[in-house]
Amino acid sequence: MVERSSPRVTLNALAEYLTVPAGRRRSIVSEQKNPKAFRVAYYAEAEDAIIGALAGVSADDHLDRGRAKIQALPTVKEWDVARRDTQLEAIEAARAFIQTPQAAALRELKMVRQRTPPLLIGGVSVSVRPELIVQSSEGVAVGAVKLYLSKTSALTEERARYAGAILQVLVEKLNPDSGVIHSKCLVLDVFARRLYLAPRTHHRRRQDISAACAEIAAIWSAEGA
């Protein structure tokens, strides 16, 4: 285990924190404070293919190449086999989503890959890391897309709304004059094949996010967190 000295959470962890009972909240902070020293990105190959499919002009080609790459992964252990098979399911779930009417909203957007700095909220560094940034025709950031990849735990409506609100805050930080568009801050639950739009009104959720981060910072510094 590697203990982090300063408060830091991922977007997914923060969105979960905002929607679970108090008992689970402390566990989330502990997991973020003491992450495993080494952890393979479980969906790395599938995620890369899905991002390319969403942003590219030939979605099936990106997904087919991703599928081939996943099938070529070594499967020495049972865990390797499970990871391969789950990633293949993610590829096909994304393929099915791209055929739905919801996906039309994505195809109309100009999206690019772009590394983003973490947000600092209430003394906590929030690693948002959207997979894609949505740009205006002038190349200005107006939105972002975040993938949610979990076969066993579907994203809830409320958790997705908090994630969308966090995306909005990030885009505002990237370009304060851009005029963030809520309908272009999107969270895609790949396995559920469902696209969530950030809430149109977000004042209360932003207050909740700030309060949660202040609470996380307090728990982080407490003995035994």
Strand percentage lies at 15-25%
Number of helices: 8
Rg over CA atoms, rounded to whole Å, is: 18 Å
Shape: globular
**What fraction, in percent, of the residue positions are helical?**
40-55%
- Measured between the Cα atoms of the first and last residue, the distance is 14 Å
Average pLDDT reading? 91
Strand order of the largest sheet: 2-5-6-7-8
Which structural class do the helices and strands define? Answer: alpha/beta
Low-confidence stretches: none
Q: Tally the beta strands.
A: 8
From N to C, what is the helix and strand string? EHHHHHHEEEEEHEEH
What does the main sheet amount to?
5 strands, mixed
Describe this structure in words.
With 225 residues, the protein is α/β, with parallel strands linked by helices. It folds into two domains: 8-35 and 105-221, no CATH class; 44-99, no CATH class. It is 47% helix and 15% strand. It is built from eight helices and eight strands; from the N terminus they run βααααααβββββαββα. The chain has helices spanning 11-17, 22-33, 44-55, 59-71, 78-98, 104-107, 157-174, 203-221; strands spanning 8-10, 110-112, 119-121, 124-127, 132-135, 141-148, 185-189, 194-197. A five-stranded mixed beta sheet has the order 2-5-6-7-8. Strands 1-4-3 form a three-stranded mixed beta sheet. Helix 7 (157-174) links the parallel strand 6 and strand 7 (185-189). The longest helix has 21 residues, at 78-98. It is globular. The two termini are 14 Å apart.
